[in-house]
Structures are given as structure tokens and as C-alpha cells.
User: Fold this.
Amino acid sequence: MYLHTPIITASDAEGAGETFAVTNFDLNNIPKNDKGEVDFKQDFFGKHTNLTVSGQLEGELAAMAFGDIYTFGPTFRAENSNTTRHLAEFWMIEPEMAFYDLNDNMDLAEELLHYVINYALENNKEDIEFLTQRLSEEEKQKPQNERSEMTLLEKLQFCVTNKFERITYTEAIAILKDSNHNKKKKFQYLVNDWGVDLQSEHERYLVEKHFNKPVILTDYPKTLKPFTCVRMMMEKQ
Assistant:
């Protein structure tokens, strides 16, 4: 079931990103309370509100009523968007399935990606050819060691023709720590101890070098994924 979640909200979901504030205050004359703080009680909603960063929390509530739901809508992040991984605004799909365990979630994610990519390959060939060419031109501007070995089309085909490898964070750390890339200090961020956060270069190594297939990583340390760990423990209770 499709669920339309709020775009204006007082929630930041799981702290997924910096938020864009929403207000009807005159910015040249913002009311303050006795403590000198912004008096949001005088604002339109009577509290601090923002553009949504995720419909996840509302989706979880709906899943307990309807079983299987998904949201698909605009989300906003007030972070530095001058990177390849950050956008100020983007559309995001978020499924929430009641009583799914970790394996069910991984199955769903893999099936979803296979379906969407196959659909695009079959129905949007011209778009993919255009984006493949565009990415190729962008790759030429990067240092040789940062360039991808596959074109966009090859990456998409790579994703749908391989079954996803599933490993734990602990297994990934052991692989990375013992790799020649790490021993020869080819990683910008060396992997020396359990508990470090993985970087893009580590993810690419696992996918493109070690397994040569898409990888799902599970069982992160709770210090790296605190909200998710707490939420999952609450759901189990």
C-alpha cells in the first residue's frame, strides 16, 4: 500500500540529516521568549517545524496497521550538497514491512533493486545511454586511482546479473584489514581496528575487487548506527 507521508513535520526521523526550517515568521522581526530564544509558540504550527528528511517514522506506524507499505516522495537535507552523495532535495522510496526480520529485509532490497534496474534497462535505454556517456566524461576528470572500472551500463548489468553477497561488518573489517590495498597503504583511510566507519573506497573494494558482486553489510557496531540499533531493539520488545 502506498502511503503519502507529511512533507512538513516536526520530526527529523532518525537524525538522518540537517533540516530545512519552515516558518511564517517575519525574518526581520523574529519573536523571542524570556530566555532570548526563538518563541516558536507564536509560529504557525506552535513549534519548530521543518521539511521532511524521511517518511520512515510515519511509515512504521502505518505498517502496523496495513502490514506492507511504502512511501515515495520528496525529502530534503540541509547539508553540503556539493558532493556526489548529497542532494538538497531528492525523491526517496521507503518500504516498511510489518514483522520482517533481517533476512526478509535483505531479500526485499535485492528484489526491489533487480526489478527497478531491469525495468529501466528495458524501457529507458536512451536515458541510460545518455547518463552512461555523461558519467564517462565526469570520470575522466578524476585521478586515475579514483576512476571506476565499469561504465554506468556495466554497473547496472553487474547489479542485476549477480546475487548479492551478504556479510557482517566484522567479516568486512577482517577482509579489508588483511587486503593488499590496506597492507600497501593504497586506502586513503587505513583499516586498523574493529569499530572504524567504512568509507566509499572500502565499499568499492569489497564490491569491485574482493567479491566482484553487490554486497549487503549487516551487524554494524551500535556506536556507528545508534538510532537504528535502539529502534530495532524496541521493535523486538
Observations:
- The chain has a mean pLDDT of 89.
- Helices lie at 56-66, 102-123, 125-139, 152-160, 169-177, 180-183, 200-211, 226-236.
- Residues 102-123 form the longest helix (22 residues).
- Strands lie at 8-9, 21-22, 49-51, 68-76, 89-97, 165-168, 215-218.
